[in-house]
């Protein structure tokens, strides 16, 4: 059975994670971790609760360049934030699909990526927006693109003794738009069968983040302009974007079903993203 | 090792928390959930244990005023925090919300109802006049195997109207 440790300083938290090595797990919302403990799919020796640490990055920070989300930022806080709602509507849509109100009141945005489920709901929009993560350890901080952070199912760049302290997002380019779509078997408390976030740039370039169609959340992009109203322009762009998807068949859907619905959801997400662009800001 | 030592060995850890306005001290192993702590250590069985993995909402409580699944919170995480269970909502008899659940015939087998009531109370405190879509979204994490959803929604709507009229 794990020990429980609630440090109040970042230094103590990092020291505990370093000492605990692979047997130590950071704890924020616990909405995945406690399920893992219950089913013995996770058997850590030490839980390091970050919620009482006073010198970690604040949950949400915003400036002209973009936004930064600390490890303790909950999805509930995220979806209520007015600037998040204005700048990153796809991220809000994705966060609102996670679990339920009670889950979102606990679940951490940063931890959703750290758990590195291929179906992590908030990963696709974070990939679309070019998120970067900050990884801290006793040796100092390093940063990485979220696209490089995901290594495989449940595997990330964050190793033993390390802690992701924040995710930062650049402010979206003027004239760009983004949207998220997800397919599940039921409305609440279900994992994605397929999820996709689409971004449309001011020049008509397309970028996708895809969930549950590969061993990790996937990112793909094509340069613009793509004429969304012209099937001869859109179809080959979708072919290129979706080529990275390699879904498996499981209890939520077959490989063929996932590939078919991914294309439908992507088309819808792209069109919605395009409709969210401010025409006055778009490149002519 | 003292009670103040933050690292727990394989023994019990003392947790001091507020439950329904009363200070409580319980001794639990680190892996004990708040759900089990409330039911077995504090002796409040109104919070129901069902899926115990955040799927069904039967164990919903308020933690510092926010609805959470108590099966997904460790009891030790509640140290220094305030927990309100369904018993705490109705310390002075049935609440208006609970009365409207009865009036609407929303209680069938009843097992999910404590969680439904706590989730609905959280909704009405944060959004006093929700529309039907907002009610369904707020309660989407609370499963009712009797499928009494229509009447549960009606009970929440009636409570919102009643509270609005009382102001």
UniProtKB/TrEMBL annotation, chain A:
Family matches, as PROSITE patterns: FAD_PCMH
Keyword Cell cycle applies: no
Domain FAD-binding PCMH-type: 1-174
This protein's UniProt keywords: FAD, Flavoprotein, Oxidoreductase
UniProt KW Transmembrane keyword: no
Single Gene Ontology MF annotation: oxidoreductase activity
InterPro entries: CO_DH_flav_C, CO_DH_flav_C_dom_sf, Diverse_Substr_Oxidored, FAD-bd_PCMH, FAD-bd_PCMH-like_sf, FAD-bd_PCMH_sub1, FAD-bd_PCMH_sub2, Mopterin_DH_FAD-bd
Pfam families (alphabetical): CO_deh_flav_C, FAD_binding_5
Gene3D superfamilies documented for this protein: 3.30.465.10, CO dehydrogenase flavoprotein, C-terminal domain, Uridine Diphospho-n-acetylenolpyruvylglucosamine Reductase, domain 2
PANTHER family (alphabetical): XANTHINE DEHYDROGENASE SUBUNIT C-RELATED
Protein name from the UniProt record: Carbon-monoxide dehydrogenase medium subunit
TrEMBL record, chain B:
Gene3D superfamilies assigned to the protein according to its UniProt record, in alphabetical order: 3.10.20.30, [2Fe-2S]-binding domain (1.10.150.120)
Pathway: Alkaloid degradation; nicotine degradation
Domain 2Fe-2S ferredoxin-type: residue ranges: 13-89
Keywords annotated in UniProt: 2Fe-2S, Iron, Iron-sulfur, Metal-binding, Oxidoreductase
MF annotations from Gene Ontology: 2 iron, 2 sulfur cluster binding; metal ion binding; oxidoreductase activity
PANTHER family per record: OXIDOREDUCTASE WITH IRON-SULFUR SUBUNIT (PTHR44379), XANTHINE DEHYDROGENASE IRON-SULFUR-BINDING SUBUNIT XDHC-RELATED (PTHR44379:SF8)
Annotated protein name in UniProt: Carbon-monoxide dehydrogenase small subunit
Top-level taxonomy: Bacteria, Bacillati, Actinomycetota, Actinomycetes, Geodermatophilales
């Amino acid at each position: 059975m794990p020990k429980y440790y609630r440090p109040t300083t970042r230094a103590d938290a990092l020291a505990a994670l370093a000492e605990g090595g692979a047997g130590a797990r950071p704890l924020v919302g616990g909405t995945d971790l406690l399920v893992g403990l219950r089913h013995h799919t996770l058997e850590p020796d030490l839980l390091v609760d970050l919620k009482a640490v006073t010198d970690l990055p604040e949950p949400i920070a915003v400036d002209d360049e973009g936004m930064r989300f600390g490890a303790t930022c909950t999805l509930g806080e995220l979806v209520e934030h007015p600037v998040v709602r204005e700048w990153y509507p796809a991220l809000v849509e994705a966060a609102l699909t996670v679990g339920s109100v009670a889950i979102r009141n606990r679940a951490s945005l940063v931890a959703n990526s750290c758990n590195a489920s291929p179906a992590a709901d908030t990963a696709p929009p974070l990939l679309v927006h070019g998120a970067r993560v900050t990884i801290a350890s006793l040796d100092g901080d390093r940063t990485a693109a979220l696209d490089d952070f995901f290594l495989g199912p449940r595997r990330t760049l964050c190793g033993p003794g390390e802690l992701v302290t924040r995710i930062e997002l650049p402010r979206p380019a003027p004239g760009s738009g983004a949207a998220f779509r997800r397919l599940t078997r039921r409305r609440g408390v279900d994992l994605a069968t397929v999820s996709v976030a689409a971004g449309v740039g001011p020049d008509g370039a397309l970028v996708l983040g895809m969930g549950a169609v590969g061993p990790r959340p996937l990112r793909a992009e094509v340069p613009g302009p793509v004429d969304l109203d012209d099937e001869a322009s859109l179809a080959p762009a979708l072919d290129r974007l979706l080529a990275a998807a390699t879904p498996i068949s499981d209890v939520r859907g077959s490989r063929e079903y996932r590939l078919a619905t991914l294309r439908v959801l992507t088309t819808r997400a792209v069109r919605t993203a395009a409709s969210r662009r401010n025409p006055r800001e778009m490149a002519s | 090792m003292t009670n103040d030592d933050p690292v727990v060995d394989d023994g019990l850890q003392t947790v001091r928390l507020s439950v329904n306005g009363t200070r409580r001290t319980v001794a639990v192993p680190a892996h004990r959930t708040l759900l089990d702590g409330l039911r077995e250590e504090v002796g409040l069985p109104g919070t129901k244990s069902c899926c115990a993995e955040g799927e069904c909402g039967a164990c919903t409580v308020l933690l510092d005023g926010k609805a959470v699944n108590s099966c997904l919170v460790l009891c030790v995480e509640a140290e220094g925090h305030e927990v309100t269970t369904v018993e705490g909502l109705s310390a002075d008899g049935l609440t208006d919300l609970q009365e409207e659940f009865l009036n609407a015939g929303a209680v069938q087998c009843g097992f999910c109802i404590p969680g439904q009531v706590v989730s609905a109370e959280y909704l009405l405190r944060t959004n006093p006049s929700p529309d039907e879509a907002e009610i369904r979204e707020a309660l989407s994490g609370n499963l009712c195997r009797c499928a009494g959803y229509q009447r549960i929604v009606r009970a929440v709507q009636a409570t919102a109207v009643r509270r609005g009229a009382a102001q």
